[in-house]
Amino acid sequence: MANASTLSLTGVLLGSTLNRNWYLIPGIVSSFLLWHAIQGWCPPLPILRRLGYRTRKEIDTEKYALKALRGDFTRLNTIGTKTNEERIDLALQVTKQ
Question: Sorted alphabetically, which Gene3D superfamilies does this protein's record hold (predicted)?
Fold first, then answer.
């Protein structure tokens, strides 16, 4: 999204100062953003994926896998005698580490 914003603003700036043909860039970028919002996919997406960009879900999954490997969730095994509120608080504390 930051890349799209940068491209759009650059296209508007260049279109207003140099040549009106630069206004095509914000139009194309905006259509790709709308396409992505509606379908969840757009033509530049495979290129961005090859460059290493990841989705928020992939980053969160990796983050929690690393926390599990580090042992952050082992304290949750001791929840047998705790109330639901205490278990929720403990789970939230573990995920914030």
Answer: 6.10.140.1340
